[in-house]
Structures are given as structure tokens and as C-alpha cells.
Fold this sequence. Notes:
Helices cover 36% and strands 27% of the residues. The protein is of the alpha/beta class and 337 residues long. A hairpin with a 3-residue loop joins strand 11 and strand 12. It starts with a strand and ends in a 5-residue tail after the last strand. It binds (2R,3S,4s,5R,6S)-2,3,4,5,6-pentahydroxycyclohexanone. Residues 156, 160, 162, 179-180, 183, 279 line the site of (2R,3S,4s,5R,6S)-2,3,4,5,6-pentahydroxycyclohexanone (ISE).
Amino acid sequence: MEQLGVGIIGVGTIGRRHAENVAWRLPRARLAAVADANPATARAVAEALGAPRWYASADELAADPDVQAVLVASSAVAHLDGILAAARHGKDVLCEKPITPTLADADRALAAVAAAGVRLEIGFMRRFDPGFAEAKARLEAGEIGTPVLVKATHRNPSLPPSLLPASGAAAMVGGIFVDSAIHDFDQARWLLGDEVVEVHAVAAPVLDPARPQDQALTTLRFARGGLAAVEVSLTCGYGYDVRAEIVGTAGTLFVGDLRASNCGLATAAGLSQRPVVHWLQRFAEAYLLEVESWVERTLGNQPPLITGRDGRAALEIATAAKRSADEGRAVELPPVG
Ligand code: ISE
């Protein structure tokens, strides 16, 4: 059976999950190598998962002849380096969101990918979540008439490590919008099949002015008149809560379930169920399906499903939301060429 030799750059939280999926759960892929800025981490993951080689740099991994395709899962500030390394060595690449923290770097990445003639896929895993994928299919089948409004709820129990000052997130210029809300922005764009023309956002570090913004509300207006309302909270405390409603002229589709399983508890004190507490838990199947799709499309020489242009579009919305929140005004986006 033909297998794709996959090299993974960045084997922290999400990169480790991708490496496990490639090593254990995807027969058409093999873990050819891993790289991490922390060599000890790269070595430990390689040894734990049976990867034959490990590296301390993106370029060394991308140069490895057994690495046929590169998965970039490093911190967002290192995504450009990973994409450029893959392009330099002629390797197709799947890059986690955001494509890069800034639009200028996104344009550099897209130019390098185009010049090298390699394929760039962006890791918006929600599109592979069975619930969201069903909603998209039923929406396209006309079950709710014309979709006109998307309402997104996206709550983390606490501030993600990628936004903590110690993580070097100072370079994450978009904060809550580029790191977190970007999923909801891509989701709304994908579900409505339309481009955003206006963004209006408010955000606040509600708990402590010295901390990064941890609450944000964003309104999106689309070219054909559709709207989206996106709520992101990074301090909800109770679990990891991602839900959406897609309102159409003939009905509404609902997506999302906070329950970790269908096991509940009933006592004299009342009813209770355990919530989902982490995005790896909530989107475990989506992450596996996302990489499986990328492996199959790469082996089949097919174009990316979620393109670099999709990645840039979501980043443009997130960047505009950050600007809107900072400047206290709506921000218009240039028409899509
Ligand atoms: C994290 O990087 C993710 O991608 C999660 O889906 C999101 O909920 C979280 O806020 C981000 O930090």
C-alpha cells in the first residue's frame, strides 16, 4: 500500500496529536521525522512514536528525502519558517491555523508556495467535524432555505497557553482574534459560502486589564447580505464549549454538544453530566479526519480542500477584527479579487 512519508514541525500540544494520528491511526501515512525548537522534545516524541529521525529545525526536516510532505504545527510565529522550508525543498504542506500571525507573512508564504509549485492546506479542522460537516451538507441541500445568519459560540475554560505572555505570544499581534476567533471566522465564511465585507468587534480583558483580551464579540457582514455574530470567551471556567446556529429563511441548523459523553448522573441532588474540557477532546475526530483527507489528497495529487487563500481570508477578517476593537469602529474589507 502506498504511504505518505510525513514530517511534523512542532510536536507540542497539537503537533503531538498529529504525530500520534500519523503513527497510529492513518495506514496510508508514516511518521518519517519530527522537528521541534526543543531538541529534547523532538527526540522524546520520535522515540515514543517510532519516528526514525528527529531534528531541531524546520529546514533539516524538510530536507529529509524520506519526508514527502510537511505538517507545520509549531507556534504561530514559526509557521512562516515551516512553510518556507517546505516550499524550499519542494514538499506539500499542511499548516495549522493561523497561516501566519500577520498578513504580510501570509503573503510571503503564499508567494513561496506558488513559486515552488507545492500545495498548501490550512488546518481549519472544524470543517471536518461530523456535526459541522453535516450542517454544511444539509445547508447546501436547501433544508433551511437561504442561510442568512451564523451565530457562533466559542468558549475556552481558561486563557490558552498560546496567549500567555510567557509563550512569546507578543508576536501574536491578533491575540484572541488571530489565535481563537479565527476558527469561527473561517467557519462562517465556509458555511455561508460568501466573503466578508465589514467587520465590527469589541474586546476586553474583563478579568484583569494587565492580561490579554479574553472576551470578544464580532459582527461580520457578508457580500450577499448575510451576517454572523461571533462570541469568544477564554475564561468560561466550566469546559470547552463550541456551538453554532445557522439561521435560514426556512429553518435553523444547530451544531455542538457540551457533553463529554452520553453518560449522566442522577441523584437526589439533581442531574449532571461531565462537559468537554479541551479542544483536543472536542475535535479529536475532526483532527484525524483533517489529516486523513490531506494525506489522501496529497497521495492522489489533488488540490487542497482548505487553501492558502482560505487561510489568508480568515486571517484578514481576524486582523480587521483586532483593528476594529482597538480603534472602536467598523472596518471594511477590500472586495475579493
Ligand atoms: C487553540 O489554538 C485552538 O485552535 C482552539 O481550537 C481554540 O479554541 C483555542 O482558543 C486556541 O488557543
